[in-house]
Write a structure and sequence with these properties.
This is Enoyl-CoA hydratase. Keywords: Lipid metabolism, Lyase. It is built from 11 helices and 9 strands. The protein has 251 residues and is of the alpha/beta class. The longest helix has 19 residues, at 74-92.
Length: 251
């Protein structure tokens, strides 16, 4: 289980997540992911970052089993802070971040993808927030960057998924390709960015963040506040325990 950074071509750095079986990340891994993304962007030799994953799917969110096996609220606090740090790192990375989504992208994965600059996905990729089925809230901030407002609310309340093809229709996913072509497609986009003057691209990234109509970091932390309330009320534990025991949402 690891998060690794490597230079795949001059100016193009990949950050790869590999946490079998479903890339549900423990708290420490979220912090590590954020640190590696920021470090890659801080290197003057880096012109663009590709965020990708090995295995069945891109990301399954936080490791709920870790959370339920820990006494008190320490694991919850660490998971929330870790997610906030990783999401912010994608947004604040000094160079553009291209995400390559394979299979499923749910929960915390939406926070990563929603803050990215370019999204490419496999033709079997699905995106969603099962948060309400886990007794939690969060990442509506980022889902709202992928789909129109009313669809976001429908997906959020129902915990349904949206397909890569639907997101391509909305313009939030740039390309949808067979799984075998995913990395090469991400590289094609990255190369188009990497050949530009990195001084200009870095300024462009900062400028685009500066004119963003939504403060994604503050709005996400607001969402997390309601999750803490649900935890203090005992609601979240009921739902997480049901998921750990049965693998299904609490009825």
């Amino acid at each position: 289980m690891s998060i690794t950074t490597s230079t795949i071509e001059p100016g193009i750095v990949t950050v790869t997540v590999d946490f079998p079986p479903v890339n549900a990340l423990p708290s420490a891994a979220w912090f590590d992911l954020g640190e590696q993304i920021l470090a890659a962007g801080a290197d003057p030799a880096t012109h663009v970052v590709i965020l990708r994953a090995e295995g069945r799917g891109f990301n399954a969110g936080v490791d709920i089993k870790e959370m339920q096996a820990t006494e008190g609220y320490g694991a919850l606090i660490d998971a929330n802070r870790g997610c906030a740090a990783a999401f912010a790192a994608v947004y604040d990375c000094a160079v553009p971040v291209v995400v390559a989504v394979n299979g499923f992208c749910v929960g915390g994965g939406i926070g990563l993808v929603g803050n990215a600059d370019v999204i490419v996905a496999t033709d079997d990729a699905v995106f969603g927030l099962p948060e309400v089925d886990r007794g939690a809230l969060g990442a509506a901030t980022h889902l709202a960057r992928l789909v129109p407002q009313h669809l976001m609310r429908t997906l959020y309340f129902t915990a349904q998924n949206v397909t890569a093809q639907q997101l391509e229709h909305f313009g939030s996913v740039y390309r949808v390709v067979p799984r075998a072509d995913l990395l090469e497609t991400a590289l094609e986009v990255a190369r188009m960015i990497a050949v530009k003057d990195t001084r200009v691209i870095r300024a462009a990234k900062e400028a685009l963040n500066g004119i963003d109509p939504v403060d994604v970091k503050t709005s996400y932390r607001l969402e997390q506040g309601y999750t803490f309330e649900l935890n203090l009320a005992g609601v979240s534990d009921e739902h997480r325990d049901a998921f750990v025991t049965t693998g299904k949402a609490k009825a």
